[in-house]
Amino acid sequence: MVCEDVFNCVELFAGAGGLLLGLETAGFRTLLANEVHPHPCMTLRDNFKHVPIVQHSIQELTGPQLLQAAGYDPKCPPRIDVVAGGPPCQGFSTAGLKDAADPRNSLIGDYIRIVGDLQPRFFILENVPGLTTLHKGRLFENMMNELADLSYDLRFQILNVADYGVPQMRKRLIILGAREGRAPLHPEPAYRSPESRDLFSIGKPAYITCGEAIGDLPMINTGEIATEYDSPPTTEYQRLMREGSTRLHNHQASRHREDTMEYYSLVPLGGTWLDIPRHLRKRKQGIQRWPLDGISRAITTEPTDFLHPTLNRVPTVRETARIQSFPDRYVFLGQRTTGNRMRRLGYCSQTQQVGNAVPPRLAELVGREINKCCQL
Q: Mind listing the pLDDT tens digit for each residue in 277-328?
């Protein structure tokens, strides 16, 4: 259900657009999206042709300058209902006399500064759960005080995306703020762990599994590519992912050497590198073969952290995007994967874009809660 009125959103640190996509699905209109890396900007421009993309470091812009860069008159700014974004928590300054627990020394500080400039009715700040304990919790306390000083009522909660229909175990910190009245509530979990015996889980469907998420995608072998579906969807999640899509994008399998595939074959269905005999293990750790009847660990930016459930290869970008809840119509641009050297040079590949994203299904449910408050 989309609300009768359309409310306006500004997206900071947009990345490949997972949060943006979820909020638009929840009924918001995006006035602009800001992202500094050129390769996610390619993805944003292709998927959100109606949205001005400001490719610039937010550290060098004020709120009015950001609006101007997107084509708006800062003297007569549009109504901004929501500012949303997930600022990276890396890069806190420890130089000189600066306090590493002072949010103003970080990109989170720039997010807070822009919120103060634009004064939206609401904001969403997404981040890793570890932010609450960084620098013994002093950073988080200082950050919340800075936001409260801007006259925002605040709520924060750590959400597990599996509870909201995303087939992976991924926990995210979601901070919500409101300038008038109480901050929006976080969405209630809609799914449950199959092992859950919690009274509040009664009647909820079990977590969506990896098999339910990707089982309809063509079974391509190493080095192959598929652009057409070869079977109909068999689950509600698959049907949802295929809405609006008539062909496949980003479904290309990486090439592997024979000895690499033999090594991958040692990892059983749903197993990890720890299931490989100790004397045969290589230096690469943390590998998980996706289970057909269970969920993935948190998706990372490193594609070799995971294996296809039944094929001895790493997942395609499309398969990983399904686990992140990106619909098939969403196309990722730029180089498919990158080595360590390209990462050091600042390249942001398709696999990195997917791994860094906020799962759109979680973003949509958070957006719907804010949408209710917008209409009050």
A: 999 999 888 999 999 999 999 999 998 999 999 999 999 999 999 999 999 9
Choice among 3, 9, 76, 89 that is catalytic: 89
Report the distance separating Cα 213 and Cα 21, nearest Å: 19
Q: How far is CA 323 from CA 44, 268, 320, in A?
A: 20, 20, 5
CATH code given to domain 210-356: 3.90.120.10
Q: Is 89 a catalytic residue?
A: yes
Q: Output the pLDDT for position 347.
A: 66
CATH dotted code for 7-192+359-374: 3.40.50.150
Token readout for 276 is 């490989």
Report domain extents, the chain.
7-192+359-374, 210-356
User: DSSP secondary structure string, 67-91?
Assistant: HHHTT--TTSPPP--EEEE------
Same fold, 7-192+359-374 and 210-356: no
Mean pLDDT, rounded, for 35-64: 96
